[in-house]
Amino acid sequence: MAAAMEARALGASRGAGHAPSARHVQGADRTWRRALPLRVLAVIPGGPAGASMIFARRQMEAVARLGVEVRTVYLGKAWSPAVLPGLLRLLRREIASFDPDVVHAHFGTATGLLCAAATRRPLVVTYRGSDLNACPAIPPWRSRVGRLCSQLAALRARRIVCVSEQLRRRLWWRRGRATVLPSGVDVDLFRPLPQAQARARMGWTHDRPAVLFNAGREPAVKRLDVAQAAVEAARVLVPDLELVVMWGDVDPQRVPLLMNGCDCLLLTSDHEGSPNVVKEAMACGLPVVSVDVGDVRARLAGVQPTRIVPQEAAALGAAIAELAPHRVRSNGPQAARELSQATLARTLLEVYAAALE
Length: 357
Description:
Layout lengths: L5 E5 L12 E4 L4 E4 L4 E6 L9 H12 L3 E6 L9 H15 L3 E4 L3 H10 L4 E5 L12 H17 L2 E4 L2 H6 L7 E3 L14 H8 L7 E7 L2 H4 L1 H11 L7 E6 L7 H7 L2 E4 L8 H9 L3 E3 L5 H4 L6 E3 L4 H11 L8 H5 L4 H16 L1
Parallel strand pairs: 4-5, 4-6, 6-7, 7-8, 8-9, 10-11, 10-12, 12-13, 13-14
Antiparallel strand pairs: 1-5, 2-3
Helix pairs in contact: 1-14, 2-3, 3-4, 6-9, 8-12
């Protein structure tokens, strides 16, 4: 099955923004001189629309707003060994056409390895979670092959970005080249709204306490079964409690309304990198009940009310029953400011500059 492929440019006129100044760049391909702005070819698995990898798309849009010229190549989702040669040719054509200073692979597995094989230009690879963690949603052999591809791509990378320290520790090689940089949050989109207003805009006609759970496209990885059991346990104390499940096809514009309309976020995953849903909940002031996974504990340090508990239905249910009925909001918006897209995009520019040294 052919993969859906698309390339697009995110505009930035030459000479604008805060990109590095003109310089000579020495590479294995050749030496070339680049005037402002810096050119980055972003390579993202999935497509250009919907919720899939939206955090990567938003990150590159924030980078473009800083004056970097960005072109994005989407590799699609229908992967098989038969499509890999075509994807490799696509990447080489885009690199020859766009002439980037940096190639940025926004995932490990085959995405990172294809980028490593396609060019000798400076390569940055971002690892986001299931590219270095085991993924029970796919066959074990495929998960192992994907993680091996991720590790091999790191050997070729000039610089590495890991969205959490836990992921950085999973690297076999090149840890010294790795920067821990979580994906940012669009704080203009994710911001507090009055709960009644958010519920009215979604057409909710009830006033029951509600728990939000992000099942995404991999409910087995997110442990929807644990979330359902936890809500059932909480209903002993809060009988009218509602579980609101976000699936992978949710309209991204609806997510801030869901976060402002619900009373707490529930996270029960076995593995995570740096779950964006937690940072988005923080930015909306939505209290979080979570297991200790990924970088959740670090992200929620100082944010109240918050509960981090074992991955057990009884403990999770008790925490939900403690928070959800009271309709309180957290102090997360203040903590989320340092995780804004604009702030973290500037740090990513420093990673690009280091890759060019």
